[in-house]
Structure formats: C-alpha cells, structure tokens
UniProtKB/TrEMBL annotation:
One of its GO terms (cellular component) is ubiquitin ligase complex. InterPro entries: STI1_HS-bd (IPR006636), UBA (IPR015940), UBA-like_sf (IPR009060), UBA1_UBAC1 (IPR041926), UBA2_UBAC1 (IPR041927), UBAC1 (IPR052476), Ubiquitin-like_domsf (IPR029071), UBL_UBAC1 (IPR057650). It is found in: Cytoplasm. Residues 231-271 are annotated as: Disordered. CDD domains: UBA1_KPC2, UBA2_KPC2, Ubl_KPC2. Residues 242-264 have a biased composition (Low complexity). Residues 182-228, 288-328 form the UBA domain. PANTHER family: UBIQUITIN-ASSOCIATED DOMAIN-CONTAINING PROTEIN 1. Pathway: Protein modification; protein ubiquitination. The keyword Repeat applies. Signal peptide: none annotated. GO terms for biological process: protein ubiquitination. This is Ubiquitin-associated domain-containing protein 1.
Amino acid sequence: QEEKIFAGKVLRLHVCTMEGAEWLEEVPEDTTVEKLKERCLKHCVPGSLEDPKTVTHHKLIHATSEKVLTDTKTVLEENIQDRDVLLLIKKRAPTLLPKMADVVAEEKRKQEQKAPDKDAILKATANLPARSVDRTVTHHNMRDFQTELRKILVSLIEVAQKLLALNPDAVELFKKANAMLDEDEEDRVDEIALRQLTEMGFPESRAVKALRLNHMSVTQAMEWLIEHADDPSVDAPLPGQAPAEAPAEGAASSAEAAAGPSSEEGGEEAKDELTEIFKKIRRKREFRPDPRAVIALMEMGFDEKEVVDALRVNNNQQNAACEWLLGDRKPSPEDLDKGIDTNSPLFQAILENPVVQLGLTNPKTLLAFEDMLENPLNSTQWMNDPETGPVMLQISRIFQTLNRT
C-alpha cells in the first residue's frame, strides 16, 4: 500500500519506429530513459536484448522538441509529459576512416588534374622557338564594344540621313520628331514642387534651379536655397545650360521649320530644310552635364569647359571624369566625333545586313542613334525597343563575330 501511495505518476507515452510500428507505453515518471528504451526494444525487436550493444545502438527522440533523450536521466528529468510522442530509431553506423593508401591515391589524382602554374608553363615552353608577336597590338585588337559603338553610330547617322533624305515624307516625319523632342522630360519642372517653394517666398528662377540641382526634391531644394541665400552666384544659370532666352529662340526656329516649304518649291529646298531639322535635332540631343558633378569638379580648380568635356567623355560619371582630368585625358572630346573607317570590313558587314538596311530607313532608328551618341546610358532603352532593338542586336553580333576572327 505504501508503494502504491508514494509511487510516481504513471505516464502514457506514444512510441513510434521508423518502420511505422506504433504502440502505447505506460511507465512511472521516475523510470530511466534506458529502462524505457529496453521496454520498447522488447516490444518491437524480439530477442534484441541478447546483444547488450542493441540498447546503445538505439536512441529515443522527443518528437515535439526533437531532443535526443539521455539514457541516465529519468522521464521526469527529461520533462516528458503524459501522451507525448517518442521516436525510437537506430543510430547510424560511424563512418569508417579512409585508409592511408586511399588518401595518398586521391591526393595524387587531384595533383594530376590540377592546372599548371605560371612557373610550370614557362619551364615546359622554355625550349620552344620564339615568335614575333606584338602583345601591344594584340591587346589593342581586343576592342571595347562601347568605345567602337560610338564610332559606328557616327558613321551610321550619316548613312541614315542620306537614305531618309530620299524619302518624300522625310520632312514631315522629322518635323514630328522635332516636336516630340520639344517635350523633353529633362527640361520640365515639377509644377507642384515649384508652387510649394514660391509660396514660401523663394523667387521662381531660384526655385527652378534648386529643384533641378536636387532632382525635384522639395526638402533638399529648400535646404539648398536657404544655404545659398547670400551666395552672389545663386541666380547664375547652371553650368552647361543655356540662359532662359535660348529656348525661346529655339522654339521660334522650330516654328519656322514647322512652316515647311510650299508645294512650288523644288526638292533641293526640301533637302535643305531637312538638313536644318537634322541640325536642330542634334542640338537638342547635345550632351547635358550633371550640374552637381560640374560644380564639384569646378570647386577642385578645373575650368568649366574642361569639366564638361571630362563628363562628356566619361558619361557623366564624376569619379571617372576626375581621373580623366588628372590623367592623360584620353580619349579626347574630338575623338568622340570621329566615325569608323567606312571601307573597313566591320562597317561593310554592318551595311550589308538586311535588318540594318531596313532599320536605316526608319526615322526612329536615326533618333535612337543620336540619343545613344550623346547619352550612352540610354542604350538599354533602345535595345529593348521593338523597332530599334533588332538593329542594335545585329550590330552587336557582327562586331563580336569579326572581333573574334
């Protein structure tokens, strides 16, 4: 009776094996995990206790906490509750250590498959006859596509202009293109942001300048205006941008060009008008330096013109422009306007491609070439365009093919 009175609490545990067997075990909470494991093995593996190693080769895992139960601890010490689920599994056999002979053979095989280093190559080729190879020329022939693309575009623009001049509708097409460029997003100012600044009392011209310098951010523009309130050059136009009167003149020129020739004028006058429109489009596509980069580089002591040249050569990247200014300044800005040799195999292969030939008769292709010429970062946009993308893809493929030969 005393044993029954002072006996520990009996727990009903749900035990499972990896083979899918399941049963209930009722054990007092002071039972050790090792004793519980023996009872489980008697239930599922008959005759297993004849080998004393069988118990040590199995372990019990608490299913909820995924904890491996310690043999010397009791069920209570392992904090096992009534109706908990336990998993009985056999321990994995320890991996056998590899034999020394196998290790040596594996290392030898790896050494045989290893690529030779520079010293081994020089030793193996020491007795080979020398050949006159100009490494400088070889390196120069590995031309950078982006650098060469600019030369290709300069020459292709000339070809496209000549082809489009033969189109009777070319003047009208390029008048529309010229009008589209009049709505350039970069010239626009956020009207709401501008109104907020002018309502604070800032002059409109200063507010416009501050917004352009700070990417249309009202907060940053306001901080800039307060910081430069006493700056004598605060009302000066941004570097690389024309004064306010220039756009009006350009608009007047566009209006004059839009008038167009009368039906009685000859084809020669229409051709001259088309040439003028080409010039206007080129002027609108002129390079626009990043005002912040211009100011930062000018503060370092460089002249405004050479700063603009540096940013143009280096696609508005301030750090690269600074290195160009401090270095040998190559390529020069004049090199950017040079086209490719029209008699070269590369240019001839490009002109003979049917996709390129068809694209050169499309005014949008010419506009794309002009845009990429002055804004190389826009190349991705034109590569993804359904009309100009195939032309750019063919130019790239032809260049890569001829550059490998």
